UniProtKB/TrEMBL annotation:
InterPro entries: MT-A70-like (IPR007757), SAM-dependent_MTases_sf (IPR029063). Belongs to the MT-A70-like family. One of its GO terms (molecular function) is methyltransferase activity. Keywords: Methyltransferase, S-adenosyl-L-methionine, Transferase. The keyword S-adenosyl-L-methionine applies. This is Cytosine methyltransferase. Transmembrane segments: none annotated. It comes from Actinomyces oris. GO terms for biological process: methylation.
């Protein structure tokens, strides 16, 4: 079931008026090798994230997924209230491992999804891009330039590992950063001064 629009949101410290116009999510999908590097989450827990409440009524969602979990990622996007429009394929410079029933992996998918009528800033972005692989599961910095060309702000990254190197202001949330928003039912270890100031303003 879709989570609904920003108008049905509870009060969330750090949420801009009307919600975030663009949200980037790199979920810690289950059944991956990520358990060795970070905490993973069940599909039910990922689906329960109130992404629809964080987003503006007219919004873009960019959702990372592996090829193996593509069907689940479509289901999660729909549960959050979004429609998948296009996959943006990250073509890596290094081959991954294969398996008994699969080809050697050299791509990941960043699903471009929409809700409502958020405009596209650029219509020239193709459905693929090249970028090198760095540390385990880290996504390429090129993603931010692409997203900012296509999608409007304000911007939020969920499950961020570090603050984006960007000229645009991004709010971040996750286990590995000082998070700018508090999501009810999804506590993280550290919060930024911005989050604390926003919470105090609501008291």
């Amino acid at each position: 079931m879709p989570t609904g629009g920003a108008s049905s949101s509870p009060t969330i410290p750090g949420l801009p008026p009307g919600g975030f116009a663009t949200i980037l999510v790199d979920p810690p999908w289950p059944l991956q090798s990520g358990e060795k590097h970070y905490r993973t989450m069940s599909l039910a827990r990922i689906t329960a994230l109130p992404v629809g409440q964080l987003a503006a009524r007219d919004a873009h969602l960019w959702l990372w997924t592996t090829n193996a979990l593509l069907p689940r990622a479509y289901e999660v996007a729909e549960a959050w209230g979004f429609t998948v429009r296009s996959p943006l394929t990250w073509v890596k410079f290094r081959l991954g491992l294969g398996g008994r029933y699969q080809l050697r992996n050299a791509t990941e998918q960043l699903l471009f999804c929409t809700r409502g009528k958020a405009p596209l800033g650029s219509r020239s972005q193709p459905t693929w891009f090249n970028a090198p692989v760095t540390e385990h599961s880290r996504k390429p910095a090129e993603q931010f330039a692409i997203i900012e060309r296509v999608s409007p702000g304000p911007y939020l990254e969920l499950f961020a590992r570090r603050r984006p190197e960007s000229n645009q202001p991004w709010a971040v949330w996750g286990d590995q950063v000082d998070s700018d928003i508090r999501i009810p039912g999804f506590a993280v270890p550290r919060y930024s001064e911005r989050a604390q100031e926003n919470e105090e303003a609501l008291r």
